[in-house]
# Entry
Amino acid sequence: MKDSTDIKKLVIIGSGPAGLTAAIYAARGSLSPLVIAGRSAGGQLMLTTDVDDFPGFSEGIQGPQLMMQMRSQAERFNTRFINEDVVEVDFSTRPFVIQTESEKVIAQSVIIATGASAMWLGIPSEEKFIGHGVSACAVCDGLFFQGKEVLVIGGGDTAMREAQHLSKICSKVYIVHRRNEFRAQPALLELVKSKPNIEFIIDSVIEEFLGENVLTSVRLKNIKNGTTSVMPIAGVFIAIGHKPNTEFLKSQLELDDKGYIKVFDETKTSIDGIFWAGDVADRIYKQAVTAAAAGCKAALDVEDYLENLKIKQSK
Ligand code: NAP
# Structure
């Protein structure tokens, strides 16, 4: 176990668009950031194929390639990376302590950019079709199903937004929900209900995803009467919520009821010197470009924070 006595000005936890943009800005601001990138470095975009909505790439770019380019850009400006997960943190002491799998890192400031992970149904046949007909992001993958019929699973705002987006691209969108009542805001629900090519299938769940290499149909079960049916479908979008990656922060930082970091004054958290960026505190937008923007803001605020800290410490 390496034990670093060197105090870092800034440690960034997470290496998706939020963490890497924060690194680029902080490195250019001479903060020599250390990024603890995580074992599955690169975040959710590593699970996406074509990214057509990130500005600057008129022909689109593959998610993993975009993340590689962001990482190279951060490295060019003197960012160091540790490709390990954070095991635990101690934000009750100053400087802050971050324990990775093999190193203890000490930092004057921290940006948490660990993102969120889409929740999956978790049924056995699902994993095989992720990226081959099953997705958790209509904005990322909707165009693959242009003119085709798709299913959206869920009854909350995310499901309604996904369905609304897909209804502009796909010939037909079915919303499959396990109850007959919806968590979605009534106005949003009404808007979705008014779309002629959206149909609701209530009291139902997916029992099995079917196909050879690519999804071709699903087995649906009506949980009220127990009947099952096989429905041909080109794509399924799982929209049952996202889970912020904040397990390691419990008891260290204030989190909201869903586990998202509580936001105080733009990029700040409940602890002075600990900042957030991206989906780890974003319950609404969850886009690569909004995460990148949050990373930029957090890095700029860290610069100010460290400047003020220097002044305080010199008094
Ligand atoms: P959510 O409100 O928790 O809704 C999740 C939905 O998925 C629920 O309908 C739930 O069913 C269903 N579900 C959960 N697990 C399931 C499973 N295993 N199988 C089948 N269905 C399952 O999550 P969300 O829609 O992602 O919204 C999260 C938060 O973000 C909310 O506060 C929401 O308001 C906010 N949001 C806002 C906007 C906006 O445009 N303002 C957009 C997106 C999200 P049950 O209802 O039966 O539990």
